[in-house]
Amino acid sequence: MRERFAFLANWGFEVESVHERAVVWRAADRRITVARDWRDGFVDVTFARGEPGAFVDRFGLHEGLEAVGKGELWPAHGWQGYDPTVARSYVDELASLTSAVAPELLGLGSAGWERAAARSRELSHEYTRDLADSRTRRAAEAAWHARDWTAVVKHYVALEAGGASLAPSELKRLAYARKRL
User: Most exposed: 38, 66, 104, 158, by fewest CB within 10 Å?
Assistant: First the structure.
């Protein structure tokens, strides 16, 4: 892994640490980690700013590619390399992708890093909101089956207030529950 990402030295990065399944490069407060998960063989490149445990921002190579307008370079296949030969080919491919995005993402004064970090935060917020909405939808469903019309209205109104779109069946349930109040 270390050799395939040696080009990061051109962007001011130095090897900070080498582990059995990971290599971490560092430049000032920025880190790039290439790692292979021991459990599932997943190979990944992550970018982070700040100190471990207190990162200011963190994002993956896919978000980096999208942030600089090169999202089409991201391959359709997954990155699970159980076989060492497959894992090495994935490391080579990730190195090529990282190299392709380096000028826009790692260059001094580049807005690409900020856009990628913002996209990663946005995806995280969407995921968190979707989890919360899912719990609220389950509560509304339970209230519907219990014929607790007040709770049905409360949960669906909360979803709407949070910006969630209600499905046609949920809109019908909300209207029915309101009539029953």
Answer: 38
